[in-house]
């Protein structure tokens, strides 16, 4: 025979559960530890550096284009992870192309991140969300360094450029950021969203059906042949040329990438996104991503998604990279802010390029 809880005991249990939930939110937001950088602090740093956007814009990667399509898994990924993306079959995908920066009306002729975000709609209501850049490394290793870099790069009101002394002082203590900036100066820039490789940047862990766990990174490698932009002529390009190119390409036919899973070797760092893993790794092609439709954010449905990299299915978990919880918290903070701001404008519609394709 079951014994009913006394009202006072039941209330105490409910209060305890609510308290634990509140503590979890406080921990995620960074309120319990002065060392932990919360999502609001990261969003504030971005706004201080890039300028507070007009209501409704994302705090970073503000200029974007909605895309959609599907992922055809070839079945080989099931040996690595029990995630529902990997059994042979087709999974619908919603995504977004974007450029780095907080100004949605900035020109595309900039030497910045080209990004692809994806949301896979898996069986049983699961989702897997990814936010990837065309660079295999990131400029900072920790959330605190990210905030410090944004502060060091705040433009001077008189020159509209960062104070060279402040930026050099930061770089002197952060050779990994200097290495990234040198990489961006020298590395070729894809001429299209269609011919760039997009990297997970952070490490994750795959868990197979037997419970074995392995560290991985992944990348989406294009079927379109790579072509580089002439960086000397970036300023002369039409303002929205990358997005117009994507719309034209998708009106003519689909874009395709192969999802390549890269397995860590012994000694590879999983907690530092500034360090590339290099060559000599086992690579597994687990399937093909096909994007066959595009629309501006006013006409599409990607604008209201938060492409949080910690929205993961069973069979995939976060690594020990401290940037992952920080990215998740920052994306949530940005989403909350723009969700209550409204209206939600569209950069390409304002540029006169709008309309679904």
CATH superfamily: Catalase core domain
Largest sheet: 10 strands, antiparallel
Count of strand segments = 10
How many DSSP H or I helices?
8
**End-to-end span in angstroms?**
65 Å
User: Total domains, how many?
Assistant: 1
Average of per-residue pLDDT values = 85
Q: Given the helix and strand composition, which structural class is it?
A: alpha+beta
Order of helices and strands: HHEEEEHHHEEEHEEEHH
What order do the helices and strands come in, and which of them pair?
Layout lengths: L6 H23 L9 H12 L13 E10 L15 E11 L14 E8 L5 E7 L9 H10 L11 H10 L1 H12 L11 E2 L4 E4 L5 E10 L18 H12 L2 E9 L19 E13 L20 E3 L4 H19 L5 H4 L7
Antiparallel strand pairs: 1-2, 1-9, 2-3, 3-4, 5-7, 6-7, 6-10, 7-8, 8-9
Helix pairs in contact: 2-3, 2-7
Task: Provide keyphrases for this structure.
single chain, 357 residues, alpha+beta, Catalase HpII,  Chain A, domain 1, ten-stranded antiparallel sheet, 8 helices, 29% helix, 22% strand, disordered N terminus
């Amino acid at each position: 025979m079951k014994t009913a809880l006394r009202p006072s005991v039941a209330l105490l249990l409910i209060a305890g559960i609510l308290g634990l939930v509140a503590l979890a939110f406080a921990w995620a937001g960074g309120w319990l530890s002065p060392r932990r950088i919360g999502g609001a602090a990261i969003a504030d740093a971005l706004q201080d550096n890039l300028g507070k956007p007009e209501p409704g814009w994302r705090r970073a990667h503000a200029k974007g284009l909605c895309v959609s399509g599907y992922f055809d898994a070839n079945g080989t990924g099931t040996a690595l992870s029990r995630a529902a993306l990997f059994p042979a079959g087709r999974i619908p995908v919603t995504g977004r192309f974007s450029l780095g920066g907080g100004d949605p009306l900035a020109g595309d002729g900039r030497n910045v991140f080209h990004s692809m975000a994806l949301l896979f709609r898996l069986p049983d209501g699961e989702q897997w969300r990814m936010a990837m850049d065309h660079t295999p490394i990131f400029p900072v290793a920790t959330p605190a360094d990210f905030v410090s870099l944004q502060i060091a790069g705040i433009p001077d009101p008189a020159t509209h450029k960062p104070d060279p002394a402040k930026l050099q002082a930061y770089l002197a203590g952060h050779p990994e950021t200097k290495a990234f900036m040198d990489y961006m100066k020298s590395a070729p820039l894809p001429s299209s969203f269609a011919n760039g490789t997009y990297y997970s940047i952070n490490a994750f862990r795959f868990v197979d059906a037997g419970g074995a766990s392995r560290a991985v990174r992944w990348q989406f490698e294009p079927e379109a042949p790579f072509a580089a932009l002439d960086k000397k002529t970036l300023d002369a390009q039409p303002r929205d040329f990358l997005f117009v190119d994507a719309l034209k390409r998708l009106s003519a036919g689909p874009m395709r990438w192969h999802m390549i899973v890269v397995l860590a070797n012994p000694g590879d760092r999983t907690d530092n996104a500034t360090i590339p893993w290099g060559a000599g790794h086992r690579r597994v092609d687990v399937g093909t991503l096909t994007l066959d439709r595009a629309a501006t954010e006013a006409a599409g449905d990607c604008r209201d998604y938060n492409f949080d990299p910690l929205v993961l299915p069973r069979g995939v978990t976060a690594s020990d990279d401290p940037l992952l919880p920080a990215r998740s918290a920052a994306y949530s903070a940005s989403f909350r802010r723009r969700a209550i701001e409204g209206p939600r404008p569209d950069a390409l519609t304002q540029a006169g390029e709008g309309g679904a394709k």
